[in-house]
Design a protein that fits this description.
CATH superfamily of the largest domain in chain A: Glutaredoxin
Largest sheet of chain A: 5 strands, mixed
CATH topology of the largest domain in chain A: Glutaredoxin
Structural class of chain B: alpha/beta
Order of helices and strands of chain B: HHHHEHHEHEHEHHHEEHEHEHHHH
Number of helices of chain B: 17
Low-confidence stretches of chain A: none
Largest interface: A-B, 83 and 101 residues
CATH architecture of the largest domain in chain A: 3-Layer(aba) Sandwich
Strand order of the largest sheet of chain A: 2-3-1-4-5
Number of strands of chain B: 8
Radius of gyration of chain A: 20 Å
Oligomer: heterodimer
Order of helices and strands of chain A: HHHHEHEEEEHHH
Distance between the termini of chain A: 60 Å
Shape of chain A: globular
Shape of chain B: globular
Strand content of chain B: 5-15%
Low-confidence stretches of chain B: 437-441
Strand order of the largest sheet of chain B: 3-2-1-4
Helix content of chain A: 40-55%
Chain lengths: 218, 441
């Protein structure tokens, strides 16, 4: 492995914290792979060996797990993972067109990264925000009710180095490595940040109020 | 007109609705104190009596699932929350966890107490990072408030919760695949029996429950069985989320008694997109056979939807108006199942591949009339012959759409292409340049 001493020490401390969450060591593997991505920006050969050493598996066994899941990247990932939902509902509501225009605008296709390393594009499967279709995710934050124009603007701003806020989520989209650390189960202090609750989330409550329902009534 | 019944969603509009303070001020964690003073067996009986059925899609009675655990043998038993919400159209658990994660946490504590579990796990899909932040924060807040840890509120009951993020795999929503994934393996379904109640996580007795099911438990404890059974229909009790998406004026989460109809829901949601009519819809996500206008008055409960030939599933109502090509919709769903097939069993792995080939051929105008029969024959080789329900689900929209819209499949063959203008379905204006199928490959 080629990790320097301080990186390795931090990785080992984090790995110990992850392992401590589970009764059986091997359960730590998925969060640990997120942890590796938070350091290397992808599941690197070093990262695979590191995980294998921590949970007493072979590198082949760890690779077999890592390749099963789409969030684990096998090549250095862009700073921002930009996914356009093209599952049926979003696709029909305009996701297909957003994908076409965005892919042409950025100049890369599915699972490809721009030469400057900022953007990796992906055609997403359903991300559980269908009431906000068409949906785009950037580093797993919600960009709801998108159009081709809004999607291109987000990507242009990201490439220009500007802070970009999702429509639901924290004050800004964090980098791929920072987000990977959160997914490894380490809080980043942004849980209270909020862009407001979206209209579809409250649509039923609003309709209930029109029917005479009031908060606290049973 | 059926009245909506906001329960889990009641506080979503409050400032900082996700915080423990907001939740507690609204009465949260009161049911926990009540539950800790009860006998665990009485809690299980109450949930059995409430008729609560699993809200993750299958609709299995929750209390009965708890009751299947074998008698205590002194070893650990586990509660695992399935928060891997990924079924196309399903979007209820994510807003629940984003806006009110403590509803779930309190449900987890009560459920764990009822079934004798001292270590619970919450498996959240990995592609929703802000939801994970809120979940981790909520667990931490619950520890700080003394709702978790050792000797909770002096009851002698200990509980730890481990939160766990997945990494992108629809199949992990299948409960045994989820358990394998949680054990650090590829997420592939296990052979059943043994069921998780007997040999689940680490081969120990395990209950796997959906977010909404467990989040409903505190309200049942608080307000009583009769309150819960006062909602819904004869065998489908209580309230649940109905998630409206697609060509509807006000899409979103509508919490209503089971048995409400789409006609009633549409009335509350402002109707189908102006200038259009409903064409087809899924009652419970993309794995459930599609419905049409003929089913506007079908009560959305387990029995009525089943009797009408579909499944209530997760109450994920994806609505498509008359601008939508059903072949395009079904083709895309099928590509999803092909992508998400875990590869363990041959009918699903190979079958979804061939279904995709045939459907893309038909949608692209290169199909034949014989291809339509070939589709159905291929479905016949998958449905009921796959290792888990993913294979069955892959065939649902195909079989139902050929039955209901066969002429639309035939039109693609006869016209050598799709008769629909894609831009007419989109929610923004654009003019369609000639379709480049390569761009979608």
């Amino acid at each position: 492995m080629t990790y320097d001493e301080s990186t390795l020490a931090q990785l080992e401390a984090d790995a110990d914290a992850i392992i401590a969450r589970y009764p059986v060591k091997r359960s730590a593997l998925l969060p640990m792979l997120h942890l590796v991505q938070s350091v290397d920006g992808y599941v690197s050969p070093d990262g695979i060996q590191f995980c294998a050493d921590q949970v007493n598996l072979t590198a082949a066994e760890v690779s077999a797990v890592a390749t099963f899941y789409t969030q684990y990247k096998r090549r250095p990932n862009g700073e921002y993972q930009v996914g356009v939902c093209t599952n049926t509902l979003c696709a029909v509501m305009g996701g297909d067109r957003i994908w076409d225009e965005l892919s042409e605008h950025v100049g890369v296709g599915h699972n490809e990264t721009t030469e400057d390393g900022t953007i990796t594009l992906e055609r997403l499967e359903c991300n559980a925000a269908c009431d906000y279709a068409p949906v785009m995710m950037v580093n797993w934050e919600f960009f709801d009710n998108q159009t081709p124009q809004s999607a291109k603007q987000v990507v242009d701003d990201l490439r220009a180095g500007k802070d970009v806020a999702p429509t639901r989520g924290p004050a800004k989209v964090c980098g791929f490595k920072e987000v990977s650390r959160v997914l490894a189960g380490f809080e980043d202090g942004r849980g209270d940040e909020d862009q407001g609750v979206g209209a579809p989330t409250l649509a039923g409550l609003e309709a209930a109020k029109r029917q005479g329902w009031t908060e606290g009534s049973k | 007109m059926t009245d909506l019944t906001p329960v889990l969603s009641a506080t979503w509009g409050s400032p900082k609705s996700w915080s423990i303070d907001t939740y507690t001020k609204a009465g949260g964690y009161g049911p926990l104190k009540k539950a800790l003073a009860m006998e665990p067996g009485a809690l299980i009986q109450a949930v059995k009596d409430s008729g609560l059925r699993g809200r993750g899609g299958a609709g299995f009675p929750t209390g009965m699932k708890w009751g299947f655990l074998p008698p205590d043998d002194g070893g650990p038993r586990y509660l695992v929350i399935n928060a891997d919400e990924s079924e196309p159209g399903t979007c209820k658990d994510i807003p629940t966890l984003l806006s009110a994660p403590h509803t779930l946490i309190e449900g987890v504590i009560i459920t764990s107490f009822a079934i004798g579990c001292n270590h619970a796990f919450i498996y959240l899909r990995g592609e929703v990072v802000h939801v994970y932040r809120r979940l981790m924060q909520a667990v931490r807040e619950a520890y700080e408030a003394g709702h978790l840890g050792k000797n909770i509120h002096g009851s002698g009951f200990d509980l730890d919760i481990t939160f766990h993020a997945g990494a992108g795999a629809y199949i992990c929503g299948e409960e045994t695949a989820l358990l394998d994934s949680l054990e650090g393996r590829r997420g592939q379904p296990r052979l059943k029996p043994p069921f998780p109640a007997v040999a689940g996580l680490y081969a120990r007795p395990t209950v796997v429950n959906n977010v909404e099911s467990v989040a409903s438990v505190p309200a049942i404890v608080d307000r009583g069985v009769e309150w819960f059974t006062g909602m819904g229909t004869e065998r489908s009790k209580g309230m649940g989320f109905f998630s409206l998406s697609g060509h509807v004026t006000r899409p979103g989460q509508y919490e209503a008694p089971l048995g409400i109809t789409l006609r009633e829901l549409l009335d509350l949601a402002g109707g189908i997109r102006a200038g259009h009519e409903l064409k087809f819809w899924t009652p419970g996500g993309s794995s459930t056979p599609i419905f049409t206008q003929d089913h506007l008055d079908t009560p959305l409960d387990y029995e009525s939807v089943g009797a009408a030939g579909s499944m209530l599933g997760t109450r994920a109502l994806q609505l498509f108006d008359d601008s939508t090509c059903v072949v395009r919709a079904v083709t895309r769903w099928t590509e999803f199942y092909k992508h998400e097939s875990c590869g363990k069993c041959t009918p699903c792995r190979e079958g979804t591949y061939w279904l995709t080939q045939i459907l893309k051929r038909i949608e692209g105008g290169k199909g034949t009339q014989a291809d339509i029969q070939q589709l159905l024959d291929t479905c016949d080789s998958i449905a009921g012959r796959s290792f888990c329900a993913l294979g069955d689900g892959a065939t649902s929209s195909i079989i139902s759409s050929v039955k209901l819209f066969r002429e639309e499949y035939e039109a693609h063959v006869e016209q050598g292409g799709c008769p629909f203008d894609r831009s007419a379905s989109a929610l923004f204006e654009y003019s369609e340049t000639p379709a480049t199928e390569e761009a979608h490959a």
